[in-house]
Write a structure and sequence with these properties.
heterodimer; A: about 425 residues; mainly alpha; Cytochrome Bc1 Complex, Chain C; two-stranded antiparallel sheet; two-stranded antiparallel ribbon; 15 helices; B: alpha+beta; 2 domains; three-stranded antiparallel β-sheet; 4 helices
Chain lengths: ~425, ~180
């Protein structure tokens, strides 16, 4: 990959293996001498953190599965047994449960970094889209995992989410019955959720490899957002291995603080009550990482109709909007019409980005509140803005915005001799 | 290793050693819970002892009880059993052990009913089952023959049947474990 450092001929046992199975040179080219932009800031740490969280979740998940019993009569007790009797079971379960939240925090920051610096733009469209696939797989994994403890929140989350599919015209009920494996959420549902929850993480691993293949085709984007030449890049090792490890230690410290001192921060206390098919908890909400999407679902309280003819009832509209909120991310590379990647050189987009961040946070908070009164209204307004941002603002900004001058090279703004190069022409 | 003017290790060497040592300790600390979780859990360890009422076990009778998920055989030895067992020349045994060494309180022979070869449960503790060439117990998996004292006499098993830790709490109650 690197023109500056030719792949060395490995000798001895390594050379023998590499000649037949070039994994040694693959690792060398992609982890050691891989050319990385030298101006990456700390927001670029979150990709490797996400990879490490995936590994932590898989390892803790595999050992938890050695003790968990996927049966409606035993699941809840087996989780309590893990907490009380299994050696370090409390650590493994809290590590896994808090880990799910940490994984989503890391991935959401990773995505917002991509949004700010335009990492989804050509030629990295597929890199971004594979990332969206990973996000969807993560959501399915997190949801199926949340059901496994078989507490009240687990049970009713399964009921509500499966019933979303009941909104599909004509075949909705048939699909719901098929998904549940019965006429209500019961043991059959729990066992298939366990199977799916164990399967999906490995599909995430596969997609992560594709994500890396796509990443290494053109290399990382960078805060300046311009295409870089070889002289603007440095070896991944030791420069970014050291930086990633430093970021990892900071991250693990925060993670550990939650696991050891506040493990239930992200949990719902109702889930410590065993599942009861006869009583729905007064206020059911999903985990925080689903809140913005849940708010979009809940904000459709009205049927969509033209001239008194109902085109779509509120239930179907809400379900479609919620799925659309995720799927719209696939089209982002083409919805954003600006050729300038980094928001640093896009004064209007920079404002739109931060408004969007606030809107998503507001959406999330309104999703956690009962769907009535002011919070319902805020949820509806922010739902509208969410789609407005992608469907109207992004296409429009690319046309009307006058970007700031983009430097020709990342050396120019840093080196003392760069004053001449500062008046680079606006790139459009 | 690079050296400074005074011939000692450099600051970089020191940082390297400290760094890798710290990483090693951290890795072990991470790995230990993942390993230890596979050891017996607290609820399994809580079942470490079994109490048995032996008052109803008549002479010449065998009883099987469960201890830590394993079968434990209790035999009320007969006078004939004891004579037969003591008549054996210890030099003929693969795992030489007199009967007294296997019995805490006569006439009770308490042993784990698992073949010391590869873990099968031998036959012979129930009436009607084959008891092997030495009139004790016989493991059908790979043909190990045990005598009436539970000692290996023929076949691949390396040791006599194991005797679990046990004590007689009273004349009628046996505590295993």
């Amino acid at each position: 990959m690197s023109a500056d450092t030719p792949t060395p001929q490995f000798r001895g046992v390594l050379g023998w293996i590499d000649h037949r199975l070039p994994v040694v040179s693959l690792g060398y080219n992609h982890l050691v001498v891989y050319p990385t932009p030298k101006n990456l800031n700390y927001w670029w740490n979150f990709g490797s953190l996400a990879g490490i969280m995936l590994i932590i979740q898989i390892v803790t998940g595999i050992v938890l599965a050695m003790h968990y019993v996927p049966h409606a009569d035993m699941a809840f007790d087996s989780v309590e047994r893990i907490m009380r009797d299994v050696n370090y079971g409390w650590l493994l379960r809290y590590g896994h449960a808090v880990g799910a939240s940490m994984f989503f925090i890391v991935v959401y920051i990773h995505m917002f970094r991509g949004l700010y610096y335009g990492s989804y733009k050509a030629p990295r469209e597929l890199l971004w889209m594979i990332g969206v696939v990973i996000l969807i797989l993560m959501m399915a994994t997190a949801f199926t995992g949340y059901v496994l403890p078989w507490g009240q929140m687990s049970f009713w989350a399964a009921v509500v989410i499966i019933n979303l599919f009941g909104a599909i015209p004509l075949v909705g009920d048939t699909i719901v019955t098929w998904l549940m494996g019965g006429f209500a959420v019961d043991n059959a549902t729990l066992q298939r959720f366990f199977s799916i929850h164990y399967l999906l993480p490995f599909t995430i691993v596969a997609m992560s490899f594709l994500h890396l293949v796509a990443l290494h085709q053109f290399g990382s984007n960078n805060p300046v957002g311009i295409d870089l030449t070889k002289k603007d890049k440095i070896n991944f090792h030791p420069y970014y291995t050291v930086k990633d490890v430093f970021g990892l230690f900071v991250f693990l410290t925060i993670y550990a603080l939650f696991v050891f001192y506040a493990p239930l921060t992200f949990a719902h206390i109702e889930n410590y009550e065993p599942a009861n098919a006869l009583v729905t908890p007064a206020h059911i909400v999903p985990d925080w990482y689903f809140m913005p999407f849940y708010a979009i679902l809940a904000s459709f309280t009205f049927d969509i109709s033209i001239f008194g003819i109902t085109l779509m009832d509120a239930k179907l509209a809400g379900v479609l909007a919620m799925f659309a909120a995720v799927l719209i991310l696939f089209f982002l590379p083409w919805l954003d019409t600006s050729k300038v990647r980094s928001a640093t050189y896009r004064p209007l987009y920079r404002i739109a980005f931060w408004v969007f961040v606030v809107v998503v946070l507001l959406l999330g908070y309104s999703g956690s509140q009962p769907a009535e009164g002011a919070w319902l209204l805020i949820g509806q307004i922010t739902t509208f803005y969410y789609f407005f941002h992608f469907l109207v603002l992004l296409p429009l900004l690319g046309k009307i915005e006058k970007p700031l001058p983009v430097p020709e090279s990342i050396n120019k703004p840093v080196l003392p001799t760069a004053s001449a190069g500062a008046q680079a022409q606006p790139a459009e | 290793m690079t050296t400074d003017a005074e011939g000692g290790g450099s600051r970089r060497d020191f940082l390297n050693i400290v760094g890798w040592t710290g990483l090693g300790i951290g890795a072990v600390a991470f790995a230990w819970p993942l390993v230890h979780q596979m050891n017996p859990a607290a609820d399994v360890l809580a079942l470490a002892t079994t109490r048995v009422d032996i008052s109803a076990i008549a002479e010449g009778m065998n009883v099987t009880v469960m201890w830590q998920g394993r079968p434990v055989w209790i035999r009320h030895l007969t006078e004939e059993d004891i004579q037969t067992a003591n008549a054996v020349d210890l030099n003929d045994l693969r795992d030489p052990e007199p009967l007294e060494a296997r019995v805490i309180q006569s006439p009770w022979l308490v042993q784990i009913g698992i073949c010391t070869h590869l873990g099968c449960v031998p036959l012979g503790n129930r009436s009607g089952e084959p008891r092997g060439d030495f009139d004790g117990w016989f493991c059908p998996c790979h043909g190990s023959h045990y005598d009436i004292a539970g000692r290996i006499r023929r076949g691949p098993a390396p040791r006599n049947l194991d005797v679990p830790p046990h004590e007689f709490v009273s004349d009628t109650e046996l505590l295993i474990g």
